[in-house]
Amino acid sequence: MTVTAILVDDEHKSLAILKNKLERLCPNVSVIGETQDPEEAIDLIVNLKPQLVFLDIAMPGMNGFEVLEKIPQPTFEVIFVTAFDNYGIEAIKHCAIGYVVKPIDSQDLIQAVSVATQNISDKTALQKNTQLIENLGIQSFQQKKIVIPSQDGLEFVKVEDIIHCQGTDGYTKIHFQHNKPIMSSYSIGHFFKLLKHKDFYLIHKSHLININYILKYLNEGYVVLQDNHKLPVSRNKRSDFLDMIRNV
Amino acid sequence: MPKKDEIENVFSEEIFFLLSGAALLIALAVVILFYVFVTRKNKLLAEKAMSIDRYEKKMVDLELHALRSQMNPHFVHNSLNAIQYYIQLNDIDQSENYLTRFSKLVRQFFEYSRKQLISIEEEIDLISNYLALEKLRFEDKLSYEIICDKTVDVEASIPSMVLQPIVENAVNHGVFHKKAPGKVTITFSQLSDHSFSVVVKDDGIGIKNSKKLAKNTLKNQESHSSQVLDERLKLLEQIDNWYVSYTIKDRSEVDDQQGTIVTLIFKLPNTL
Known about the structure:
The structure holds two protein chains of two kinds. By secondary structure, chain A is an alpha/beta fold. Chain A is built from eight helices and 15 strands.
């Protein structure tokens, strides 16, 4: 499937690298516009209506997130391109949006483009982009929503509502305070990275818990959560876990 | 008469009693004082030992902090990105030039972050290497000048890891956000036998606008570099008696121009 794309990066070198790589590695991508100016990027995107936008984060005057925010209907897939931005990358990951880091690795680029190409037919870009903008305005981690691809599409879940994530055979079952559990085809490792925050603790190789839901700790090495799940704490994690609990 | 004797006896007995009582009290007081003194001294020693411990820990923390703030990941990855560009162009000379310059700078970062003091000459070399690399990235958008007054003793020491983060701020927060080309000027001047100043001046968007931009965008924790600097300067003062003061001014308040001026004044330790 041919995908129309616009490239936005304030550095001409970065634009050249990306264009060169796309031509060589992703022949299905057709570059219909490129710009070094964030202001111009908004006009370009609104007028040309691309399916995919490669967006640099750190740009003079206006960063990539602000560019996205200023577009009335961001219905296109985004692949963020960034040299380094811890905070930004976390936020992007939370919303299951694509990104590549500079210097761009060929395999990473091919992978990101292939995922974005698949996503275009799902028409979920608007929701994800809107969620990203919303999350960036929220300070508290527990109040943010993360996007989880599940069997029937995307689930937007508030971090606060997650009680625990349970890994099973490479899949992950996520248990919530109010809603029914959902299954994700991502492994527990993915959620460990996604929920990298002091409120989440990997008590066992297949159990990641939201510590706000701990009811009690049993001396034989179990925690009981508010949904009455009794989960084991790995022997080698017990002392660290108890230290952490005491300090909360 | 015996009465008088008796009275005298009683009197002297009383005096004896009082005196011995007083002696006893004094002895007791001495013992108590001695005890208090010894425990006080032990406590002070313990406190001192603890504060040295804490100091050493803090020093290590700060060294790491300084290294981290100098080896700005943004800078590292942007440099590597530019090298990728020349590799793609098959420009062997420029790729190698960039790579070796970058490698040289990383080497300096590692070496100087372990030292407390470096010479002004070394500092100038580090800053000019750093700016040369940024120039390769920014091209015509960035120019720079390092001025060192003839009266400055370039062999003299300067605390390491103080200046580079300030210069980096001038590039990344000042010049970066400016549409037109920008310039960074660094001037070393001798103030007296025992003090010198370094002025880092840019004609970028100015600290006021830069802060506004940072506030408008992400609630990033990027701007804590000045806090790191404050802590570092405070420790330098406590430990090595270096006294370093600095001011940051928006040029709109100084010379009616655009940009930021940071003035650092270094006073040598033995003059305090």
